[in-house]
Amino acid sequence: MLLCAISTSSAVASVALFRADSLLATLESPDRKLHAERLFSLIDGVLAAAGVTRTELSVLACDVGPGSFTGVRVGLAAASGIVLGLGIPAVGVGALSSLGQLALIDTQAESVLVAVDAQKGEVFFEQMTRTSSVQRATLDRDAYRGFAAEARSKGTLLVGAIHAELGFAASDFVAQAPHAVAIGRTAILARQQRPMPGVLQSEDPSVAFEPVYGRDADATPLSEQTGPFARPRASD
Asked: Are both 57 and 18 inside the same structural domain?
């Protein structure tokens, strides 16, 4: 199995290439505003590093969010085009779910609380145990800081670099962020028939996964705009 994983939900766009469960190559771009422009270059880069071509890919794994509204859409649009073009299966992986599940696998923790910066003074988070996803929500930073402190006091492992910004000591959390390597690892486990909350699989390349944005778009989509400056719709 040659699996390509992409992640564009955060400030860093990343791509990782795996053969079976071995990481062959990974590349990233740190500019949030250039995800759309650089994603396919990153994909071509990891393929070149491994000495393979796009037509050799057998599975595509994509970060479905939550995260940047535009970033999530960029990743899902690219993934849809690739799987349709190549006729290969797709795996949709939640950004927070992947980090949480891997933290549970890699540590002795019984529960984890994963968080990422949602911008605008808010935090996306997901709390899960070894058997289920317990809670997913968005809170303002002050409210989340108190929520995380209480969870930490009960033995929950905090996951996410944002906890440093919120004043937690480095020993209290695992500094991870959404990345294609985590997306790929999670997808591989799911393909091995291991139950993985937050993971959706489809053997049908025409099936589109629903994005997880965390909040509504700041702008109204053209299809929903009204008023004198709205763009006419096909049915108008």
From this structure: yes
One domain, residues 67 and 160: no
Q: Whole-prediction pTM value?
A: 0.86
Euclidean distance between CA atoms 50 and 56, whole angstroms: 11
Q: Are 97 and 197 in contact (CB under 8 A)?
A: yes
pLDDT tens for 53-68 read 999 999 999 999 998 8
53 and 152 fall within a common domain: no
Q: Give the least confident one: 68-77, 166-175, 215-224.
A: 215-224
Helix and strand totals (H; E) in the chain: 6, 11
Q: How many CA atoms lie within 13 A of 72 on its CB side?
A: 21
Round to whole Å and give the CA distance between 137 and 114: 11
Number of domains present in the structure of the chain: 2
Tokens of 19: 């053969």
Beta-strand ranges (E) seen in the chain are: 2-7, 13-19, 22-29, 59-63, 90-93, 111-119, 122-129, 133-140, 157-159, 173-174, 199-202
CA distance 213 to 117: 12
